[in-house]
Amino acid sequence: MKQEQSLKILLWLVAIGFFMQTLDATIVNTALPAMAASLGESPLRMQSVVVAYSLTMAMLIPASGWIADRLGTRRVYIGAIVLFVVGSVLCALSHSLTQLVASRVVQGLGGALLLPVGRLAVLKTVPRERFLQAMSFVAIPGLIGPLIGPTLGGWLVEVASWHWIFLINVPVGLAGCVATLRYMPGPPSMAVTRFDLAGYLMLAFGMVALSLALDGLSGLGLRQAGVLVLMIFGLASLAAYWLHALRRPDPLFSPQLFTVPTLRIGLLGNLFSRLGSSCMPFLIPLLLQVTMGYSPLQAGMMMLPVALASMSMKRLTTPLIMRFGYRQVLVVNTLLVGLGMASFALASPDQPLWLRIIQLAAFGAVNSLQFTAMNTITLKDLDHGMASSGNSLLSMVQMLAMGMGVAAAGAVLAAFTAYFERGGPTQTLSAFQATFACMGLITIASAAIFWQLSPADRAVTAAREAPDLSD
């Protein structure tokens, strides 16, 4: 009985960690204009706050499993919570955009370890026959975080200040540390294979360089020559990692993974599809507040239709894939996601509220179907030996695409803002409209990647499918 109670508390502990991670990825978006005003920055140049968090998580994910095995899951999980809380406090104390971005990096270091290490603790503790049920329970708060994040962020900005979107993590984190010490099993650190440090550094540098090159077009103020140099160094570093992995017996991500066609297509589709769609939680609250006069709370509440439609769509995903197959669903749905994004190019202050709600809900529904379908096709054909590595690679690509998508959207928005000469709200609205159209086209272009799937790929046996890893 006592063991069962400890197991339930462990699941709650990991679930809350997942909730903190997903909440903080979305709660910031509606507060960006308030942060910009407080820090003396333009709200259109605040994408670095989002990019820093996502990129840091993408960098650390490949090393998370090795760190947990080397130091022990309980020790690493406590360290993750402490880093997350310290980063949150530093964010609240920031007096400049540079300080805030640096603090988000610290917060991202903790956030990157919360879910994978928590999942590993559940894997080592829960009986195998109950693992799927346990992970389904842990995943529920991950869906609730994005649901309440934008609205909670807007409410805190209005009733207190933007600093409280970070300070609310402190009591939750302290309680999490106490609960971890008491209820999470603390197996000793174990002998692990030698970590591929050289490969990790090449991969991490490549991701950072490419993301900074995109962000440098707007947020960092780099000139074209600096952006070009960063991009070349980033591509060269990724190419060097690939060559390194080909000759190393135990690389971070084995090139053997890419012999699986569905994983190869799924990863590329994830990357390029998310480059477009991941910018929407960043762009929509900015559009509503900067050009249409919405308050932070109102802008946050307008994201509720997206989240509710996203959760409602989960029931229909498997029947649709079983009926039409992955290729047809993903090609058609990718086009719908891109068109849904491009439809925001028609947004204006005169647009009826009911029409805007329908527009947001429709985007949330097709975006949810997109994430679930492309995540499942990526992992479904991996054997047991490749599953863990493939899952980590998918998680890394998701976070990388999220950061690069926001950076790309910021760069495009900055370019159109300059083109329209910042002439006032009308010109700013035109810059947003053009940005939505461009980012929608990027997503539409990624449909060609999913066309390479075999028409025979279907969700024939839903019980054997990979767990839902959608956002």
What does it look like?
The protein is mainly α and 471 residues long. The chain folds into 3 domains: 1-192, Up-down Bundle (Growth Hormone, Chain: A); 197-251, no CATH class; 256-471, Growth Hormone, Chain: A (Up-down Bundle), CATH 1.20.1250.20. The protein is built from 20 helices and no strands. It has helices spanning 2-27, 32-39, 47-71, 73-92, 97-125, 131-159, 164-167, 169-183, 197-216, 224-247, 261-277, 280-292, 296-301, 304-312, 314-324, 326-342, 353-379, 384-419, 425-445, 447-450.
- The run of helices and strands is HHHHHHHHHHHHHHHHHHHH
What is the CATH class designation of the largest domain? Mainly Alpha
User: What is the averaged pLDDT score?
Assistant: 82
By DSSP, the count of extended strands is 0
Our measurement of the CA-to-CA distance between the termini, rounded to an integer number of angstroms, reads: 34 Å
Oligomer: single chain
Proportion in helices: over 70%
Structural class assignment: mainly alpha
Shape: globular
Parts with pLDDT < 50 across at least 5 consecutive residues? 460-470
Biggest sheet, in brief? Answer: none
Give the tally of structural domains.
3
Question: Helix segment count?
Answer: 20
Assign the CATH architecture of the largest domain. Answer: Up-down Bundle
CA radius of gyration is 21 Å
* The CATH topology of the largest domain: Growth Hormone, Chain: A
* CATH superfamily membership of the largest domain: MFS general substrate transporter like domains
- β-strand amount: under 5%
